[in-house]
Amino acid sequence: xxxxxxxxxxxxxxxxxxxxxxxxxxxxxxxxxxxxxxxxxxxxxxxxxxxxxxxxxxxxxxxxxxxxxxxxxxxxxxxxxxxxxxxxxxxxxxxxxxxxxxxxxxxxxxxxxxxxxxxxxxxxxxxxxxxxxxxxxxxxxxxxxxxxxxx
Length: 151
Known about the structure:
Layout: H1 16-57, H2 64-78, H3 95-104, H4 121-150
Helix pairs in contact: 1-2
């Protein structure tokens, strides 16, 4: 008789140990990519600095570690480590938000607006959209042909 062992996939979301190993693997791969990115970015900053700054401003050339330290310093000064809030205005509406809401409402898609005639748009397009569009194209082409004959 075959042994009835839990045959849950090792990396499936149902396996608790699979989740742990998957998270550890993602962290490990993330650290590897971060280190590779830092190395490549340091060389890129070094090359750009040594290519541009001595000729433009008469500044000295820098080493890789100086370039890497400049990248870290810029990150500390202009963008702190960690997560960034999605609301960059810290809860205050921007003038662009008011302008956008005036023309588009709070939703980007007009048919998602509540209490609007746009709620029928998807159904209309499924029922009559193609025929209505083809009729519109014929009207536009007829107008264009009429305008060409006048000229």
